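User: protein disulfide-isomerase, Moniliophthora roreri:
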Amino acid sequence: MTFQTMKLALSVILCTSTLVLASNVVELDPENWDHLVGTGKSGLVNFYSKECNHCQNLEPVYDQLADTYAHAQDTLFIGRIEAAKVGRSIKKRYGVTQYPTLKWFSANGTVEDQFHSMAKRTIHNMAHFVYKNSNVRSNLPPLDYLTLDATTFDDVVMDPTKNVLVAFTAQWCQHCTDMKPAFERVANIVANEPNIVLANVEGPDEVNSRLMERFKIKEYPTLLFFSKDNKEPEEYIYGLDESQFIEFLNLKCGLQRAPTGGLNDEAGRIPQFDALAREFRLAPTDRRPQVYQKAVDISDALSLETPKHYLQVMKDLLSDNTDDWLHAEAQRLDTILRDGSVSHKGADAVKVKANILRVFCEEGGEKSDQSNSETVRKASGEL
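Assistant: Predicted structure for protein disulfide-isomerase:
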């Protein structure tokens, strides 16, 4: 063997070693099984065969799954065992008859669950399986909409804290393909809404055919809405564009979104505090502190976040007593929203402040109607 050949062989060995060490998957075999499984940590085990094409396709996804749970290695493990040859004794012990088979083991070593053999082995589906059994979340960034199948459907859709809009689609369906970009954009818009979930079930296939039968899905796309208050599905019969999805969610979930996805001009406003804002604005200077105190007292009795914005505007006007602060604040909010550099969540917060500021600009200002109108436009969302 030449020096160059030896050098190349050594490089390959070192590279391979690095790859093995870099993996967060626990490599199992008959010798270490009883020392690692059932010794205090629960975990997922992939029973695989080196000759199995499905196993080969799963390997990089499974490695990624282990990486997303690297932070929880003190609590659980993601492991695998070559079960066709080296681990045949372990395979027989747990009745494994096909590859890959993924089983969830409790901390005492008993099998508690098995990933459905017909479920799609996506990173998010497997992460949901681990979470369901361990109550430990992965480090995966959440999808704006969820991909569900028969094995995960009820866990998500029947959650009594969630309003869920489910799109049943088929890969061959052109209408479904045309709909998905709008569906994805709306999912992104409502991603920060804690009680709203958009989900997709793709079929019909062997694993999802039961869902199609259960909900009498005859054509694609079919969309069903499951309210958090009533899990009897309601068919969505409106258009498949972004604005109509948003209009429907506004109606069913109490959202306050404009057709473009941003908050509308009513978002964040409270009628009782709108009245106080107008009373404050119209009051003589010496009566404004009394109106402010009334607003503080009412706010203290409510467990809401929004009143603090009304109170802040009143406080600043008490310090200034002119329209100057209103104009300056309107311009500041205008700049932030026009810049477009804030997140959806940040833009929502700014829009709520602008909407509340708008109330103070309405009716009975000290400046001309034209000046007030300009301030209203700046503060209200024509930004």
